[in-house]
């Protein structure tokens, strides 16, 4: 069990620092998700499609847990829901592209709202699902 600090303001300060660190990492998480999505999208129809799908599911699982821990309830729930849909039997990128794009947009919006700075980097839209 983690020992709680004796001084509640100190605890609040430490929690604020952890939340700020999480927020600063949202752009990196977004980029990780977009990369994993792209790989799954390009390999989904092949025998090699399971590995990138698992990588994407793990990244979503980590995002969901951390987001919920640091007060990003909607983002955490959306990541958890998408994780479940991606790990379901028969999941294909083309059926999940809109949900994924919405999650990426929400992640970028959460970063912008918390930091006041729009995230730099790739567009919020993932590549279209392979046909």
Total helical segments = 5
- Give the amount of beta strand, in percent: under 5%
Q: Span between N and C termini?
A: 49 Å
Largest sheet: none
N-to-C series of helices and strands: HHHHH
Protein name: Chemotaxis protein-like protein
Region (Disordered): 112-131
Organism: Burkholderia gladioli (strain BSR3)
GO biological process, one term: phosphorelay signal transduction system
Secondary structure elements and their pairing?
Elements: H1 8-24, H2 26-43, H3 50-69, H4 73-87, H5 93-115
Helix pairs in contact: 2-3, 2-5, 3-4, 4-5
Describe this structure in words.
71% of the residues lie in helices and 0% in strands. The chain has one domain (8-115): Four Helix Bundle (Hemerythrin (Met), subunit A) (Up-down Bundle), CATH 1.20.120. The chain is mainly α. Helix 2 packs antiparallel against helix 3 (50-69), helix 2 packs antiparallel against helix 5 and helix 4 runs antiparallel to helix 5. The chain has helices at residues 8-24, 26-43, 50-69, 73-87, 93-115. It has five helices and no strands. Residues 112-131 are annotated as: Disordered. This is Chemotaxis protein-like protein. It comes from Burkholderia gladioli (strain BSR3). Residues 119-131 have a biased composition (Pro residues).
